[in-house]
Amino acid sequence: MSTYNGEACLAQQLDSVLAQDAPGITVFVRDDGSSDGTVDLLEGYERRGDVVLIRGRNEGVVSSFLDLVAAVPRDFDYISLCDQDDVWHPDKLSRAVGLLEGKDGSIPQLYCSEYYFCDEGMARVGRSHHNRIGVAFPTMLYDNMVSGNTTVINRTLADLVVAAGREGVYTHDWWLGLVASALGELTYDDFASLEYRRTGSNASPTGSGGMRLLRYRIRTFFGKGQLACVTAQLERLHELYAKEMAPGDRELLERFLRGGRLGKVFAPVRLRQTVGGEVALRLLFLFGLL
What we know:
By secondary structure, the chain is an alpha/beta fold. About 45% of the residues lie in helices and about 15% in strands. The mean pLDDT is about 95.
């Protein structure tokens, strides 16, 4: 768990993690330079032996989570990412690990799931339905299908990500999903594993519809130049792992990194979960913005 000024909701989240029905859980928390009472609250859990607390300087959420993955000792078989203001269902980890235990642990494995949207008071307002057409390498290239707060990864994937460092990483959960789908397996569970609290401090209006979501995407990707970050993340994936990828996946990645506009526009593969998203992406290719 990475925390930053999360005092208001943190105890409820931590208590839900500590109440998991899976055995052998250790909670690693890195505080990213909070200025409220977050660290004081965490120190109470630390004194009781409920968390391993790392007091850090402010690096931002991506670097903070990658630091945490590197800090987990190698004798832990699985690592789960955790936000600071959700509430986990008691069987979240046992279900994820149960599914991963049946997979080939010698290759990168990632589990992720759906969740319930909640308001600030944790009243449910909807359920996510991100996986509509299936999740595989092509649908991970330009669409982050991995919600970090639901993610569980195996040791093989953790070691790869730690060795790769943070250069070129746009978002930590997307990066984990890209590496897993390029070199191993990504298991997407149609199961709501937690209550996702939506507040003014949440990063995006995920799950919103219509114009609000469209305005957010335009503001984020054009106003902040994030399209270049998406491409840089794919470039880093190619730099590190192209030789290890399946030939078809490598050729597809190179098509979008090295090919011309029309080659991208007419690539015979589905890239986004919705038709509207697919059309918008093809237009970005057409105008040379991606």
